[in-house]
Structures are given as C-alpha cells and as structure tokens.
C-alpha cells in the first residue's frame, strides 16, 4: 500500500489539474526513482522543472523529500535507452479479426512529463519520447499501427537472463530499448514468423502480469490506456539472430 505525500511546493507548481492527474497514476508494481526498489509505505512526489519541461517521479520517504527541483535550460527527459526498467508482456491479440503478435512494454519506475505547461496532461516519459521516434498514438485496437523503420526485436530463445526466453529491442541508433526476459504464450512465435513483425505498445497500461498469459486482461488494459490517450504503438521487425543474418 502506498501513501502518497505531495508538499505544498509541489502542489503549487502542478496546480489543481496537474494534481488531479498525478493522483490518478497507479504506483502498483512501480519502483523508487532513487533506489530502484519497489515503492511502498510513504512515497514522496518529486518534480523537476526548467519552466518548459516538467518531470514527475516518485521516491520512498527515506530516499528524499517531496520537492520541486529547479533544472537548467538543457534539462530534458532521458531517452528510454538511458535505462528505464521495463517489464514486457507478450500476447496474441485480435485486431479487427486478425490475431497479431503483441508486445506490451511498461516502465517499472513511473515518471511523467507534463505537456503544455504545469497544468497540462501527464504523459509517460517513455511514450512521449517514442512519439518523437515515429511511434503513433493509439486510440483503438482495430488495426496494427504503422511499422517504424529500423527498430528490431531480437528473440533469444532459451537465452534470457536466467535461461528463459529473452528479448532485445533495439532502436535505429542501436540503443537498447529493452533487454530482458519475455514469456511467450502459445501461438505467439507462429504469428510473429508469419508476419515478420510484432506490435509494440508502450504506455500507462497498468500493471500487467507478464507470466499470466491472460489475453483478455491484456486487451482490456490496452483499450483502457488507448481510450485515455495514454498508449503509443508501432510495428517492429522481429526475428531470431539466425533469421536476422539471413
Ligand atoms: Zn527508494
């Protein structure tokens, strides 16, 4: 259970609208921005801002106060390759009658950018970065979003961190967007081999269990995030290292 504390200084900066949005953020299964351990007990909201960019994150009470930290002009949210911890949920999901291989990435440490000034919308830091990289805002799951060039998912079957299946998602600069385990449900590999790509969704999806293989729950969570304007997506090429070289 998380008891969120927001100092008067942070309240004044975010304003009523910003506070209402920040209060909607689920901190379930998320981690402290300072020590990377799971958030529980009293949690403080921290805001970094340079006037144009405002960045909201969460820390344990013992890891830091709820405060506004003034940043320099060159302050900008870090790119995903800079090391956001992520979970990856694989599913085969119906899109307008086609069963498509889907990957859902969720950031473990919740951090948000406030768009359009301090009273604007809170957007997931990683999702907002991806919109600048060719990913599209997803409003419904009828069709796969367009493919984004030069992004690639490399499946390392049986070669994950603990001998399970692993996945490496690389951006066009070779940055590691994701590296870690992936638990593939039945039929996922068949569909991925058939299409040669998977749909990668990223956003405020809300605590999926990557091992549950619950396609209905995944679909429901994605629809909710899409309707809230909190989901971005793209098709990315996927393959095994052998296929990638061929
Ligand atoms: Zn901490």
Topology:
Elements: E1 2-5, H1 8-24, E2 41-49, E3 54-60, E4 68-70, E5 86-95, E6 98-107, E7 111-114, E8 122-124, H2 125-131, E9 136-137, E10 147-156, E11 166-170, E12 176-181, H3 188-195, E13 197-203, H4 215-227, E14 231-239, H5 241-245
Parallel strand pairs: 1-2, 2-4, 6-13, 10-14
Antiparallel strand pairs: 2-3, 3-7, 5-6, 7-8, 9-14, 10-11, 11-12, 13-14
Brief rundown of the structure:
The protein is an alpha/beta fold and 246 residues long.
Word description of this protein:
The protein has two domains: 2-70, no CATH class; 80-245, no CATH class. The chain is 20% helix and 36% strand. The N and C termini lie far apart (50 Å). The protein has helices at residues 8-24, 125-131, 188-195, 215-227, 241-245; strands at 2-5, 41-49, 54-60, 68-70, 86-95, 98-107, 111-114, 122-124, 136-137, 147-156, 166-170, 176-181, 197-203, 231-239. Strands 5, 6, 9, 10, 11, 12, 13 and 14 form an eight-stranded mixed β-sheet that branches. Strands 1, 2, 3, 4, 7 and 8 form a six-stranded mixed β-sheet that branches. A hairpin with a 7-residue loop joins strand 7 and strand 8 (122-124). By secondary structure, it is α/β, with parallel strands linked by helices. Zinc ion binds next to strand 3.
């Amino acid at each position: 259970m998380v008891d969120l504390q927001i100092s008067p200084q942070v309240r004044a900066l975010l304003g009523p609208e910003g506070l209402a949005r920040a209060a909607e953020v689920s901190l379930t299964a998320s981690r402290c921005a300072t020590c990377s351990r799971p958030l529980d007990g009293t949690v403080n909201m921290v805001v970094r801002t340079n006037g144009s960019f405002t960045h909201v994150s969460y820390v344990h009470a013992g890891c830091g106060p709820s405060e506004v930290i003034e940043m320099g002009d060159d302050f900008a949210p870090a790119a995903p390759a800079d090391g956001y911890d992520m979970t990856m949920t694989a599913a085969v999901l119906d899109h307008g009658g086609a069963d498509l291989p889907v990957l859902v990435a969720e950031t473990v440490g919740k951090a948000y950018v406030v768009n359009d000034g301090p009273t604007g919308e809170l957007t997931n830091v990683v999702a907002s970065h991806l919109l600048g990289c060719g990913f599209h805002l997803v409003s419904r799951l009828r069709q796969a979003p367009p493919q984004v060039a030069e992004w690639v998912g490399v499946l390392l079957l049986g070669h994950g961190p603990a001998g399970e299946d692993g996945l490496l998602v690389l951006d066009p600069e070779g940055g590691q967007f994701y590296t870690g385990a992936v638990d593939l449900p039945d039929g996922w590999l068949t569909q991925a081999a058939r299409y040669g790509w998977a749909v990668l969704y990223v956003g405020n999806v809300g605590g999926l269990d990557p091992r549950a293989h619950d396609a209905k729950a995944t679909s429901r969570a994605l629809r909710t995030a899409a309707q809230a304007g909190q989901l971005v997506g793209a098709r990315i090429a996927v393959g095994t290292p052998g296929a990638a070289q061929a």
